[in-house]
Amino acid sequence: MQQDIPRGILCIVLSTVVLTSQDGITKWLVESHHAGEIMFYRGLLAVPVVMVMHALLGHSVFRLRSRKPVLTAYRSLIAVICSFFVTLSFVYLPLADALAIIFVSPLFITALSAVMLREPVGWQRWSAVVVGFCGVLLITEPGQAPLTWVIAIPLLAALTAALRDIASRQLGGIDPPTTTLFWNMLANGAGGALTLPFFGLTMPTLESWVLLVISAVMVVIAMWLIVMAFQLATGSAIAPYRYLSLVWAGLIGYAVWGDIPSET
């Protein structure tokens, strides 16, 4: 796929709005369902959504088969681990605080793009990422509360998110984004299913089903935009724009739960 940095930036900006709204729904759902359940139900609901999107974009069903199955399998596995850590972060931390730590990932993306993809990373892009990271520090106010093991969860989510996005970049021009998403969502459902024998399965209420369906549609749209962004532009070019999610997270967390970052 030909590089188009402006379109890549637009895709990542739009994805921050959709994905953060979906994260808000996930935080709501973790009040009544464990992380594995949410991944299981959302994965099952998302697979047909991806297939419909795949068809609407004019791709044959045979294009759901990846041309790089090993790389796609690796990306799907990393995406499952990332989803688990992200969802678990919302159990233990307010939405904005969790995402503030998770969004250390642009630093990882910028560094890994230089090392793994041999992409040039100039001082301007490093500066943009560092400024964004300073914003994270301003929000989280390190030292205001004692660090606990819980911090490791969103940090692991950040690292796996960066590895997932690097893999998305590597798949650019090889598979359609919907092919990557299809295996991603299938793996998420399977990963969630593996937790059910240990933590059980609760039948969702009507309200939960509605939220799960909305969450599935939103996560497909958001992930499609992210995959498109990383196929259209270099990781270091779009990484700083992911910090916009912190703005939406703060607004949603305050409006719905009354959360104020680092208040506790």
What would you say this structure looks like, in words?
With 264 residues, the chain is an all-alpha fold. It is built from eleven helices and no strands.
Low-confidence stretches: none
Rounded to the nearest angstrom, the radius of gyration is 18 Å
Structural category: mainly alpha
Termini Cα gap: 46 Å
Share in β-strands: under 5%
Q: What is the helix fraction of residues, given as a range?
A: over 70%
Global geometry: globular
Overall pLDDT: 83
Give the helix tally: 11
Kindly state the number of beta strands. 0
Main sheet, how many strands, which sense, barrel?
none
Secondary-structure element pattern, one letter each: HHHHHHHHHHH
Key attributes of the depicted protein:
264 residues; mainly alpha; 74% helix
Summarize the structure.
By secondary structure, the protein is mainly α. The chain contains 11 helices and no strands.
